Amino acid sequence: MKITVFGATGGVGREVVRQALDAGHEVTAVVRDPARLPVPAHERLRVATVSDVTDQEAVLSVISGQDAVVSALGAASNKQAKATPVAGPALTAITSAMDRAGVRRLSAVSAAPVGPLADGEGMFTRAVVYPLLRRLLRDLYADLAVMEAAMSASGTLWTVIRPPMLQNKPGTGTYRRALDANVRGGRTIPRADVADALLTTLTDPATAGHAVGVAS
After folding, report:
1. DSSP secondary structure of 148-216
2. CB-based burial of residue 6 (10 Å sphere; 0-12 exposed, 13-18 middle, 19+ buried)?
3. pTM
4. What pLDDT sits at residue 126?
């Protein structure tokens, strides 16, 4: 499969690139600064520099002829809480470019608080954790909500992955998933497992047009 990865230099994005190469895919890693991509040169890896991922023409040039697109753009840390929105404008451009190029399959990382609380979730999470996160990081989650809306309105076969707090730990491959819901009691997940979810859903038609909650 030929896959374009946006946000390739981030914690999740670099894991997507590594895992996709390990799985035998051809990868186009979209970056602003190639020096920030800590992935060794590979015969199936193309590094494409795009300074503005909201520029539809620039985006079109890196997705034409591909089979699928993965977006790891999003909230990397709390320091970005007041940053200019990225994911929403970027996915608006990316999905429009995909429609023009005839590229259908798309997966993108969002965040658990953008989705609904899991059925049976504990009172502390319901009354304290989620309300606090949604208040403190409201700009980030608003950006991700715009991103999800742009994907839903597009002609793509999209899947949104909604993880809780991300960890820099080895992937387990045994994380839990919930279709159109968050995982009950889900608190954390390794970035490597989120990358796995982004890639495996590309070939899982049951997840097309759905959000998937993931957690350890």
Report:
1. HHHHHHSSSEEEEEE-SEEE-S---S--EEEETSPPTT--EEEHHHHHHHHHHGGG-GGGTTEEEEEE-
2. buried
3. 0.92
4. 65
Give the alpha-carbon dihedral of 47, 203, 142, 77, to 10 degrees.
-50
Q: Which residue(s) pair with 107 in the sheet?
A: 70, 159
The one-letter amino acid code at 137 reads L
- Averaged pLDDT, 140-160: 96
Of 69, 64, 66, 71, the C-alpha closest to 101 is: 64
Structural domains in the chain, CATH included, are 2-215 (3.40.50.720)
Burial of residue 181, with CB atoms counted within 10 A of its CB: 0-12 exposed, 13-18 middle, 19 or more buried? middle
